[in-house]
Amino acid sequence: MISFLGQCVQNFFQAMKYFFKGNVRFSSIIRQMALIGFDSLGICLAIVFISSCVIALQVAQQFLMSGADSYIGGFLAVALIREIAPGFAALALAARAGTAITAQVANMQVTNQIDAIDVLKVDSIGYYFAPRIMAGALSVFCIVLLSELIGILGGAIVSYFSIGLHPVRYFNSVWLMLVMKDIYVSLLKGLVFGALIALVCATVGYNTKGGAKNVGISTTKASILCTMYILVADLIIGILFYMG
Questions:
Q1: DSSP state of 209
Q2: Which tens digit of pLDDT belongs to each residue from 160-184?
Q3: CA separation for the pair 195, 197 (Å, rounded)
Q4: Angle, vertex CA 92, rays to CA 200 and CA 24, nearest 5
């Protein structure tokens, strides 16, 4: 685990060096964003929307009984923006697009396409990793922003139909309890999680040896590692910005 983390860090700096040298075409990043972000947008938004609706449904009655129904919107917005939207969106994207990255890179590795790139004196890590890391970071950043809007709207709908909470009172509590720091941190999480997903999954794929059977094993391994690293990164960011 430690050696793999070290390899991920090394691959990240090598990919960023390749990127800042101007070797990555903008069209490559856009193409990867379409594959990573756009294809995963629907499932990510659906998961966050349903999760926010379920939470609103569970807490609405308790808030109403205690006379704190006016705070449902603010409570849900803080929980959604701090944790639910970036965390759930990243985990969904890791399962959908992250495993696809692993399978793609692993297939190139076992069919010797990466060796062919190396023979041509091209930095294979920079060539394959840099556009995917940038696309992953930007994709999750945008998905998190959309997920937050969709999640807050879902909570408003459920609160209205479950306890009759007027949308004006709901959004007023969102406005009062939400601070810009929460939004900035959630978007930072989106950038970090997206880059982390692409980096981990590409590294697992790059390390794949053997044949088609090993490609399947690598995709499973990448999914597990992504989940672990996302949760650890979430904890670290939470300690840095909210502890104390």
A1: -
A2: 998 888 899 999 999 988 889 999 9
A3: 6
A4: 45
Nearby residues of 70 by Cβ (< 8 Å), 6 or more positions away: 165, 169, 172, 173
pLDDT one-digit tens code per residue, 83-103: 999 999 999 999 889 999 999
pTM comes to: 0.92
What is the residue whose two structure tokens read 């499973």? 220
Q: Which two tokens mark 8? A: 């991920």
Domain-wise residue ranges, the chain: 26-237
Surface-to-core class of residue 40, CB atoms within 10 Å of its CB (0-12 exposed, 13-18 middle, 19+ buried): buried
- For residues 130 and 17, give the distance between their C-alpha atoms in angstroms, rounded to a whole number: 9
Question: Could you tell me which residues come within 8 angstroms of residue 83 by beta carbon, excluding any fewer than 6 positions away?
Answer: 234
Q: First and final CA of the chain: distance in angstroms?
A: 30
CA separation (Å) from 180 to 148, 184, 187? 13, 6, 11
Question: How big is the chain, counted in residues?
Answer: 244
| Gap between the Cα atoms of 231 and 75, Å rounded | 22
Q: Please report where in the chains the tokens 């090598």 appear, as a residue.
A: 14
Give the residue carrying structure tokens 């990919």.
15
Closest CA to 216 of 92, 111, 90, 100: 100
37's enclosing H/E stretch is none
- Centre a 10 Å sphere on the Cβ of residue 11 and count the other Cβ atoms it contains: 21
